[in-house]
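Chapter review: from sequence to fold.
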Amino acid sequence: VSRADWSGIISDVKAAMLCLAQVQVHRIKRDSNKIAYVLAQLVMGSGTNTVWRLCSPAEILDLLNQECNPLFSH
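The token string follows.
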């Protein structure tokens, strides 16, 4: 995908950021964003809109336990 394809979205985001008192933008590596990646894959693979209430998929619980465990090192 060409970066030029994203230029309109980036311009809109930059304009919106000007309206906020403080904004910090950080690059997050994919391996540090596993939960969002797995959720996206689950939704794309299901072909339907999915809502999880009061429980989450086992894959997400496993990742949460890994990422929220202070003894787990990245």
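Two observations follow directly from the output. Helices lie at 7-17, 34-46, 58-67. The CA atoms of residues 14 and 20 lie 10 Å apart.
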